[in-house]
Design a protein that fits this description.
The structure is a single chain. It is built from 10 helices and 2 strands. It has 183 residues and is mainly α. The protein has one domain. It is globular.
Length: 183
């Protein structure tokens, strides 16, 4: 099982959005789910431009920057339990179907990230999605994700749909290690 890629989020969000629209007929709920499931990643763009101060404004340069592990800071404000709690309170207070859809899509997004991307971080992947945890570590990508070499698929579409993987799987960290009896 590899990491969750942007393309993986796009496909799962499209499937979930189609299912929600077909079952409920609610455009606001479906729109919120799509924004939360896929467009939540806009915070990567904000980090790329404002935190990292990158100026290569092509999708390929942006994707390569992240998949190859060049990011120095991981603020990712929208990828946080704290924002989700605030939005849940707002959705309840306003009775907003759209915000409820966003929370459902965002929860799907974070669950997929946690399930698939845990291999890329040497720390607790559950803690990573706390803004306070990232803040306490200075948003430092090296501290949060380590510096192990990554292998990325060739070309934009390969990276978009397959994402990076560690060059050497971690022993004892959900990596399959063949058993060879000592003789």
């Amino acid at each position: 099982m590899g990491p969750m890629s942007p393309g993986g989020h796009l496909v799962t969000t499209a499937i979930a959005g189609g299912a929600v629209l077909a079952s409920t007929g609610s455009i606001p709920l479906t729109a919120g789910l799509v924004v939360g499931g896929f467009l939540i990643d806009v915070d990567h763009v904000v980090d790329y431009l404002l935190v990292e101060r990158r100026r290569e404004l092509t999708p390929a340069a942006f994707l390569r920057y992240y998949t190859e592990g060049h990011a120095r800071r991981m603020v990712l404000a929208l990828h946080s339990y704290e924002v989700f709690l605030a939005l849940a309170a707002l959705a309840w207070w306003l009775g907003s179907v759209w915000v409820a859809g966003y929370l459902a899509g965002g929860a799907m997004h974070l669950a997929l990230d946690i399930g698939f991307n845990g291999r890329l971080t040497p720390r607790n992947i559950f803690a990573f999605y706390s803004f306070g945890f990232r803040w306490a570590h200075g948003f430092d990508a090296l501290t949060l994700f380590g510096s192990e070499p990554r292998v990325t698929p060739a070309g934009f579409w390969g990276s978009f749909f397959l994402g990076p993987r560690l060059a050497r799987p971690r022993v004892g960290h959900r990596a399959a290690v063949p058993y060879a009896p000592q003789g």
